């Protein structure tokens, strides 16, 4: 309790003193008594203020009236948190849990479901909230929970996406709760307090429901407007009325218990009029009899006139059912000792319009007139167990009231668990005992009478109360009004807390309000949403909607506790120790089950709403790092997945380019060629791994800040180009060394790159510094040594942006050598993107003059058909001399390509022998060629002649059917198969490996020119041209000639993608 300074003027006290008290002792005693009286007055005032301010409203906000007063301008000493468990948690939870359902619907639920199923409904709902309270206590005692309550707990435990989604669901639930309470208050007002206030009246008995709904809409809108004005003017008025509302709830509940126990000896007099076994609406006639005595004459009663036409009683024209059945009266409240509990033990669900009947009464089954249907008590809606679960669950909500006020508690770590669990225990006991008492004291037909038509329009639960039904009617009215005010006050503050976190951009406006912090705009939105609930006008239809949103919130509270417990994060240290992840999972499962039990379609709608909000925050919302459990869960899942990926390399069917994009930065640390990232995003389309790397020259100790700036610049560019991936910056003294480090070290475990993408060194001919193009060639060598695929987009500045669309055109693939299928796979992946989707794919293959071009075209078309790739096939014939620069690669790889196509025409047995034979022969021939090259030191140009020989690791085995041909062969099996084939089918064709190492540079340039002429002639209008990229020379003396060769080969083409395979198959015909 804060220190309150009181100033008492001596002159004031002197006036109050008697004149004869002149001594100093007497003066001191009088002063002391005044101070003591003022101290006790201050204590009583503080306790009263504490009693009336335990709502779920955030404390500490200055009110409008306080701002206008002069006293508000003076600086006040802030009060320290001083609320205990009783005033801060227990009583607020009681007030929020007890509500309209207890007074208006619990008797009806017992009548429809019976005592046993009613107890099951209460058990399910209360168990769900108890398990949620345990999880909530663990989260709430793991730190301070400020304004926002459940939203704050979930968002800080599961991240902003879950927090925003569930927070908005909790907000919608609280908003619809205010509508439900208002509808309950209006129902009490129109049905039991002032029925004459109805504006709309039914023209016939069948139209009474629609008239009542219209009255509910009108009065509900008026009541909502008045409550919104009260909340807008000042929250302190709601605080001051809180004690009155709670007192009404407690007095009403006590009167029910007193009346139930009093009914054992003196049951209240509420008789029910029965026609046969049907229950009659009691307020439409005066005497429960067919005839009455007036003097000595028997005359028809009002009941007779309702069922019969005016006329002679001896030959009446009456309703058949009325004539054949007797009118009797039974006791509506038999009392606790009457044994009525046996009849109310089991369920009696009804369809809409079904008349309420009492089993055991004699009745003659006869068809009555339709116009007399309004005389009977009937069901207004079809009932079932699932419907009653959804209607009752809102009466178990409100357990967050204590956690919402953790900042005002003296010891929140102790008060929240104790107060919340104690409040749930108390309310659960009240619900369980009320179910048993209602079933033991009240007649079944009265219990099934929702609006008390059989007991002269009295509230059913009020007929059991003592001393008068008006105690329950007035008490329930004020309690529902108070609960509606609290919901209408708490919902805008919850929305304001979400808006101030700035995780949902379109809600930012609702974070603002009046100068004193009152959420004006949020209150306006809350009123509009609550008006939607008011327009529904049916308490039984609004309650399941409310249940969905609260169950969604409770589900994620349990999930948050379970995730935090299983992850065992260091910051998870709740003071509340009586929790377990299994209990949280059980509570989560019960919440999910209750959602679908009560209303499966409402459950789906609520989940869709939450999912849409989640995806919106994930896509558009602001990034927040709150140390949430989902991030820890993601880390654990990533670790598990990485360990699984370490088992072995991916299968050919799962292969996709995992890119390492090497970017070059200018002097201002800006990306020099951003279209590399654009092309990477089009190729990846958000799938697989993308690592964007760059090198900063310098010393790590001196260039750390520059490295961070470069990383941020690349991340910004990745966001602009919508590249989903990672950024890796390396500081090295030489760019060449940094690129080698990136190629070696990027990735983690099984998530490593298998393809390198880098730009072409433009202007290398004019550059006086050869380091740029020498770094390029060194990178090509490094990727070859690391068995990585390589892609070099040339003229990348002409590549399309993500906003362009190609409506026509071709993607041309020049398949000169077999590279494992990279040239065929890349166009297919590009066509998945919207930029390239409408482009057609063409494959050009180069054949020698003596090859069977027609058969090769058929074989290639069949191969593409089996690959499920749509492409146009063309075969280009060229002289052997025109492609002599490709001699080594053509000999090793073009022969393999032809052999692969020829394999498709062999039988299974022949294919098995062919695979083994050609593998062994080619491996031997490669080794022989490499041996000759290493010994031939007298040839001047041996370096360049060997430059186009693909490395031995690039050889690819042709896949055979897995059930008969194995991809892996032992050395003994290959040698045996080789000897067998040498005797039978060895032909000169297998010795096509010819070493043409004596060609000059002029001859090689001639080859490049001839190939370029053919490519430009066929693909000059193509949107993109894909070419095999020859391997670099082993000796650096031929680097410049290699660059010239590539320049001449690609001259005149607008967009060229040079591709070099990584030495393994990346595409397969098998599923």
UniProtKB/TrEMBL annotation:
<dbReference type="GO" id="GO:0055064">
    <property type="term" value="P:chloride ion homeostasis"/>
</dbReference>
<protein>
    <submittedName>
        <fullName>Solute carrier family 12 member 4</fullName>
    </submittedName>
</protein>
<feature type="domain" description="SLC12A transporter C-terminal">
    <location>
        <begin position="805"/>
        <end position="877"/>
    </location>
</feature>
<dbReference type="InterPro" id="IPR018491">
    <property type="entry name" value="SLC12_C"/>
</dbReference>
<keyword id="KW-0630">Potassium</keyword>
<keyword id="KW-0597">Phosphoprotein</keyword>
<dbReference type="GO" id="GO:0007268">
    <property type="term" value="P:chemical synaptic transmission"/>
</dbReference>
<keyword id="KW-0325">Glycoprotein</keyword>
<keyword id="KW-0868">Chloride</keyword>
<feature type="domain" description="SLC12A transporter C-terminal">
    <location>
        <begin position="674"/>
        <end position="792"/>
    </location>
</feature>
<dbReference type="InterPro" id="IPR004842">
    <property type="entry name" value="SLC12A_fam"/>
</dbReference>
<keyword id="KW-1133">Transmembrane helix</keyword>
<feature type="transmembrane region" description="Helical">
    <location>
        <begin position="89"/>
        <end position="108"/>
    </location>
</feature>
<feature type="transmembrane region" description="Helical">
    <location>
        <begin position="545"/>
        <end position="566"/>
    </location>
</feature>
<keyword id="KW-0633">Potassium transport</keyword>
<keyword id="KW-0769">Symport</keyword>
<feature type="transmembrane region" description="Helical">
    <location>
        <begin position="218"/>
        <end position="235"/>
    </location>
</feature>
<feature type="domain" description="Amino acid permease/ SLC12A">
    <location>
        <begin position="360"/>
        <end position="660"/>
    </location>
</feature>
<keyword id="KW-0406">Ion transport</keyword>
<dbReference type="GO" id="GO:0006884">
    <property type="term" value="P:cell volume homeostasis"/>
</dbReference>
<feature type="transmembrane region" description="Helical">
    <location>
        <begin position="165"/>
        <end position="190"/>
    </location>
</feature>
<feature type="domain" description="SLC12A transporter C-terminal">
    <location>
        <begin position="959"/>
        <end position="1071"/>
    </location>
</feature>
<feature type="transmembrane region" description="Helical">
    <location>
        <begin position="120"/>
        <end position="145"/>
    </location>
</feature>
<keyword id="KW-1003">Cell membrane</keyword>
<feature type="transmembrane region" description="Helical">
    <location>
        <begin position="381"/>
        <end position="401"/>
    </location>
</feature>
<dbReference type="GO" id="GO:0055075">
    <property type="term" value="P:potassium ion homeostasis"/>
</dbReference>
<dbReference type="GO" id="GO:0015379">
    <property type="term" value="F:potassium:chloride symporter activity"/>
</dbReference>
<keyword id="KW-0813">Transport</keyword>
<dbReference type="GO" id="GO:1990573">
    <property type="term" value="P:potassium ion import across plasma membrane"/>
</dbReference>
<feature type="transmembrane region" description="Helical">
    <location>
        <begin position="578"/>
        <end position="595"/>
    </location>
</feature>
<dbReference type="InterPro" id="IPR000076">
    <property type="entry name" value="KCL_cotranspt"/>
</dbReference>
<dbReference type="GO" id="GO:0045202">
    <property type="term" value="C:synapse"/>
</dbReference>
<keyword id="KW-0472">Membrane</keyword>
<dbReference type="GO" id="GO:0005886">
    <property type="term" value="C:plasma membrane"/>
</dbReference>
<dbReference type="InterPro" id="IPR004841">
    <property type="entry name" value="AA-permease/SLC12A_dom"/>
</dbReference>
<dbReference type="Pfam" id="PF03522">
    <property type="entry name" value="SLC12"/>
</dbReference>
<keyword id="KW-0812">Transmembrane</keyword>
<feature type="transmembrane region" description="Helical">
    <location>
        <begin position="241"/>
        <end position="260"/>
    </location>
</feature>
<dbReference type="Pfam" id="PF00324">
    <property type="entry name" value="AA_permease"/>
</dbReference>
<feature type="transmembrane region" description="Helical">
    <location>
        <begin position="421"/>
        <end position="447"/>
    </location>
</feature>
<feature type="transmembrane region" description="Helical">
    <location>
        <begin position="521"/>
        <end position="539"/>
    </location>
</feature>
<comment type="similarity">
    <text>Belongs to the SLC12A transporter family. K/Cl co-transporter subfamily.</text>
</comment>
